[in-house]
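Sample pair:
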Amino acid sequence: MVNKSVMNNIESVLVSAINKQPLLPLVIAYSGGVDSQVLLHTLAKLSKKKLINNPISVCHVNHGLSDNAQAWQEFSRQQCQQLNLPLVICSVNVKAQKQQSLEALARDARYQSLQQVNTDQSIIITGHHSDDQSETFLLALKRGAGLKGLSAMSSEAHLGKHFLLRPLLTISRENIESYAKKNQLTWVEDESNNDTRFDRNFIRKQIMPLLRDRWPSINNTINRSAAHCLEGQALLDELAEQDLAKVSLTEKSLQVSLLITLSKARFSNVIRYFLSQHNCLMPSTEQLAQVWQQLLVNIDKNPEVKVGDHFLRRFKDSLQLTTIFLDVSGWQQVIDLSAEATNIVLPDNLGQLFISLSNSKESTSQRVKAAEVGQVVSIRFCHNNPTCLPDYRQHSRPVKKVLQELGIAPWQRKRTAFLYYDDHLVAAIGHFVCQPYIAKNDESCIFLSI
């Protein structure tokens, strides 16, 4: 039993948090700043005293955003060397993107790096404190965030297969700096932290001091509000999970006729939850209203709404989540069928096409009459809407009409691969073979599978 009475508050909360998972390795997120410096040295001390027994490693992420980035990396190396702790240095390349702050992009890159330190499950631990929590809450409030944003940071969360711990969220920055000075620790200062052009720094330097002067316990009350928001969001997630089970068609599609029976509040809630399951950027209130309106149009319409780097696309009674597609209409590849088998990587993550002279894929393969000597065999995604006679029909129809009657969504029709002999359409791969090219039992043939 650990005697917490002989430990200070920082040591006590760390021991309590970590001993919930006493066997998992620890990965310390270490920048060299005062918060992570206190975290590093306290955990090293606790480990030396056998108050925690988890294996410890340290991860420093070099974002390359400051002229001092290399100096901070060297400082991290020296500190870990003094404490005899293994250090992993991850260099990331963060570039500004539309609709995302540089801070958010750097944070995402940092968490990606932390997850890669250990292949097995581990505890990733950060030095976030109560002042960070208050700043995050006010930033979310400034953005007009809902409960999820106002929940700010949770003390425990999942990060991929790992556990993410922020055990110092109950500790103030003042207490952390006091601990660092008392233990004669040194740390690095990020010069960008003084630049009040950044919203977080503006809140930290100008807003929070005013609030603390008026209400000294403001950090505690903000953190309490964030905890209430977190609890409310948990209830919304439970409701969304139930609604999603009812309206789901597939992993990435929802049933429109059931979606529109929900109240607008439940509709917005389940769409946000659905998108979060696929790591999509959250839609704005305006985008959610647009999706709702698009679901009410005639069923023969195919509207779409862009949300971050994804689309929500309506087709008949389904709302489908897709990525942003590249134009593949100009892609084609000539095939040499002299080999026993040919494997073709299709563009824009459309998979692989396997062409062979023997049916290794059994019933999943399309059997096609072999090309005549001298004919050019090619795979294309474009066509000039020729009339064709698919294997399942008795009458010819233009290709566009055939793809429609097969129930293929409009955006997937543009991403359907076609087999050509010279300029003659032979097959829509995965859908049909034109009747003149269906191989008879005694004819040489090829097999297509995708």
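The mean pLDDT is 91.
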